[in-house]
Amino acid sequence: MTYIYLNDTYCSSPEDVKSLFKDQNNLKSKSFRNEVLAYFRDGLLEELYNECGENITLPSNTDTDEKCFKELVKSISGTELTGNISSKFNEIGEFLRVEFEGESYIDSNGIDINTKSETFTAPVKFVFKCLKSENNEYTLTLNGQKVAKNWKSFNRGQEVVYEFNPNIVGEYILFEGGNNSICRISIRNNKLDGHEYVDLGLPSGLKWATCNVGASKPEEYGDYFAWGEVKPKDKYYQNNSLFYDIALYTLKRDEVIDSKGNLTSTYDAASVNWGKNWRMSTKEEFEELIKYCKWTWIALGGVLGYKVESKQTGNNNWIFLPAAGYQDGKSSYNVGNYGYYWSSSVCESNGSLRLYIDSRSKNVNFDFYRTFEYLRSHGLTIRPVTK
Known about the structure:
The protein is an alpha+beta fold.
């Protein structure tokens, strides 16, 4: 029978291991992390789970220790650890963690959180250990301005929870004893006008929405639009298209497109449906997405499409582009095999440019991620962007 010895405790079952992973102090302990990683790398952790008939999702053996440990914590306890695993000491308090919206963060050098809530219903909890038995002054600042101040008395070695309710996004810093900074936490909102976006670390700084126009989840196809039209239709024909075969000169004259050849806000389905802070992407912005992201064909919620991940070191953000096909006449075509996304850009031959993705390229092959002209009358999906 396999067993492992963690934190002075013999573990002979997955439940024994899980109980240790529920202790936040263990997760912060360097010796505990090293023991866990040693059992993982020599295969004993997996062997223990297999003997007990339980599955465990294991990280890659080639991952860094920090990434391995985070993945193991997630697999064993379901807890998400975000940020660098580190500890910061000063003469008064030792930082332990921050808790917010069901997550634990353990980087005392600065925590960045993208909250999915537009209004905060959960408190922020700074958790640290008191190193002195005395009355201490605790000051909370928001973007450099003092927002709270009080005195509390704690015993040496006691775990302290300083809790507050954030009212706006920004940088919060907790100070103890005057100028001793315990921790900084930056809370950002990744929603704009009710729609979620992610930062993929692109050179332009452009943010991409997580859903198509008309969708409420990343895997939903959303609505289909003819190019330059702002409402979906029951049928998509050339004779009911506003801009099928309309010359470039006419589009500029009527201010359908701007001087760069991109749709103006009046004819931009993203701007009209989601608000002025959103718009359709241009050809160049699709090309940037292609160049600076990793593309992987996956199924999300049973829907096929591409997972588009940031290549930026330390940026784990991604979006999903479902293979929604297209609509022509009253019918849908290539749903589940191909994806077609309008850009706002036109081309010289009275067409408009789209992003085309297909299932044949399950490996990274940018030949299949290309933009080219397409009939403006067809109904395609739209993925908005924002600055």
